[in-house]
Amino acid sequence: MAATPFLILQPRFNSYINPLFRSLSSSPLSFNATTAIQSSLSPPSETQSSTAAGRSGALSPAPPLSGAVQKIDVNPPKGTRDFPPEDMRLRNWLFSNFREVSRLYGFEEVDFPVLENEALFTRKAGEEIKDQLYCFEDQGRRRVALRPELTPSLARLVIQKGKSVSLPLKWFTVGQCWRYERMTRGRRREHYQWNMDIIGVPGVMAEAELIASIVTLFKRIGITESDVGFKVSSRKVLQGVLKCYSIPENLFGKVCVIIDKIEKIPVEEIKKELKVAGVSEEAVHELLEVLSVKSLAELEERVGSCGEAIADLKQLFLLAEKFGYSKWLQFDASVVRGLAYYTGIVFEGFDREGKLRAICGGGRYDHLFSTFGADDIPACGFGFGDAVIVELLKEKGLLPELSLEVHNIVCALDEDLQAAAAMVANILREKGQSVDLVLESKPLKWVFKRASRTNAERLVIVGSSEWQRGMVGVKILSTGEQYEVKLDDLK
């Protein structure tokens, strides 16, 4: 049945609605609850430990209560975050882009416990990870840790599933990770990470597909090749150099962790750490010479013995042309990634202006499964943290405007019509519309402020005379159009 013009509502509705809409709908209510709370509390404590906190399960005794109740520090632990509504909207937007890109590439979503056995991360991750673990002994005297990354958990799940899954696997996850480390811009002690992994494909096509997916994500959120690039190399190059100088294979992981610091600490410190690790002075010199190479042609001249590494890299650059992202790639022999389990091609997304740390990174890890007692399976993947990309979007002015939006705000004009308003809200919700139901008896002035703050599309008013006739009042807030509509016809 067609809606009838809503020209006359009960007098008090008419007396409020027109002038209030004109004067208030453009004036959102402004109230900062966080400021109000923090103004009444003591400033945050700065006495946190900078060394042992990440590895200790001990709790400090609570301060004794004397007289008045002690005020609690309202800040989250150092290096962690709260997500109030505006930040949660941004997080959901970013995660929805992670998931949509993964869907476009045919990946399936998985997840794992945040709490894992400590050995999962200490067996093949490298010394740096061991020092950064949030780990402790639980009440069953088991050594456990908050996951610092996601790949070992993925490997564990693949081994657990065994032959019940058919290769290749294309899995992704978006999960929270914890590392006790020095904080810099875009680096926190907890963060969320998007991982995509391909298990069971030995060829470079897998790496090319993964980099393509990251490029797709960047394009979706407004990042271009002038903003971000990918440094690409292969650990097989490093292995070849070390083999030439008879460096024991068991030092390879340690050497990679040291070289991964090459842009973070002075070169003299790098040399010193390599020598302490057992690398000869001659090998250190040759290694640093090779790591300074920035083109495949020059690399081929210097280390012709690393034929497999060169062939892999050439194939990757050829595939990048076909995928359409060759302008995003550049060869950089110094990229090795800090995790010990990488075995072949490695890549790292970087901010071309150099203001931020690595945006994402990954590579091939063909021998990770055997470190957990299973047969090796060719595999590669990447990790992409949420904190750095948000910083980059801020830097580029690309953060989306994500305000709260609801379809309807429903209110009753009389307190005894609150139940009727709830019924109207329920009807609309069952039709898939979002409804902000005014839960108390409030003046229309307050309701209009609320509607403005929530960006409501329309106001639905339950008044006594309309309700007796089985109708409600509706006002389209963007145009000012108003009408009555039967409850059965409310959409």
UniProtKB/TrEMBL annotation:
Belongs to the class-II aminoacyl-tRNA synthetase family. L-histidine binds at E149, L150, T151, R179, Q193, D197, R337, Y341, Y342. This is histidine--tRNA ligase. Signal peptide: none annotated. Its EC number is 6.1.1.21. CDD domains: HisRS-like_core (cd00773). It is an enzyme of class 6 (ligase). GO terms for cellular component: cytoplasm. GO terms for biological process: histidyl-tRNA aminoacylation. Coiled coil: none annotated. Keywords: Aminoacyl-tRNA synthetase, ATP-binding, Ligase, Nucleotide-binding, Protein biosynthesis. One of its GO terms (molecular function) is histidine-tRNA ligase activity. It comes from Lupinus angustifolius (Narrow-leaved blue lupine). It catalyses: tRNA(His) + L-histidine + ATP = L-histidyl-tRNA(His) + AMP + diphosphate + H(+). Residues 79-400 form the Aminoacyl-transfer RNA synthetases class-II family profile domain. HAMAP family: His_tRNA_synth. NCBIfam families: hisS. InterPro entries: aa-tRNA-synth_II (IPR006195), aa-tRNA-synth_II/BPL/LPL (IPR045864), Anticodon-bd (IPR004154), Anticodon-bd_dom_sf (IPR036621), His-tRNA-ligase (IPR015807), HisRS-like_core (IPR041715), HisRS/HisZ (IPR004516). Residues 37-83 are annotated as: Disordered. Residues 38-51 have a biased composition (Low complexity).
